[in-house]
Amino acid sequence: MKRTFLISVLFFLIFSPYSFSAPIDTTGLTPLLNWPDIPGATQYRLQIATNTNFNSPVLDVTIIQSQYQVLSGLLLCNTVYYWRYSGFIGGSWGSWSATYQFFTYCPIGIGDPEGNLPKYFKLYQNYPNPFNPATIIKFDIPSNSFVSLGVYDIIGNEILVLVKSELTPGTYELTFDGSNLASGIYYYKLVSGEFSSVRRMILIK
Q1: How many Å apart are CA 188 and CA 182, to the nearest integer?
Q2: C-alpha 90: how far from its chain's center?
């Protein structure tokens, strides 16, 4: 049975077309993407990219089933990916679906021969800052924790959820791409249990 998973997408919150499921492990690099069968569709086209423009997709594949297991070695650690699909019906391709998102997580502290895993939650200042169009966000997780990391505009509206998942102990780094945002001041907030931390970043185009 397919699992339902709620995904937040840039500029607005939407639901996955059917489901998005990914192994909850220390890599998260081989997610299983699922979507509902389109009546009459004989093929599906799936794209995965690091931005919502899909101008340089990391995957552009045609398949016959309405799910796809991403192969090992394709995706990078600690990266936000976007995906969409379309169906081939009556000799032509239909329009693209809405855009959905997932985050691949690989704590860079795992496997440290000195065993120097974080002892406390910590949200670091992004770098570079100011940035255009991408910047790196880094944070520490000291124990198995459910973590959310979101990006907010200057008046406090949440515009993107980067992470909303159970994570293992480690130090994480992810690349935030602001290509589709206007220049200005933004905030990113890390929340886990009673811990909460907010930092400011500046996008200059």
Answers
A1: 16
A2: 33
Distances from the Cα of 8 to the Cα of 102, 174, 184, angstroms:
9, 17, 22
CA distances to 109, 121, 148, 198 from 195, rounded to whole Å, are 20, 7, 11, 11
Q: Count the alpha carbons within 13 Å of 138 in the hemisphere toward its beta carbon.
A: 12
Q: Where in the chain is the domain with CATH 2.60.40.1930?
A: 122-203
Q: Whole-model pTM? A: 0.61
Per the listing, tokens 């976007």 go with: 82
pLDDT digits (tens, 9 = 90+) for 108-147: 654 444 557 888 999 999 999 999 988 999 999 999 888 9
Which helix (H) or strand (E) segment holds residue 58: the answer is: none
Cα 182 to Cα 11, 110, 153, 196: the distances in Å are 12, 36, 10, 26
Q: How many residues does the chain have?
A: 205
| Domain over 122-203 is classified CATH 3.40.50.920 | no
Please identify, in words, the CATH class of the domain defined by 6-104.
Answer: mainly beta
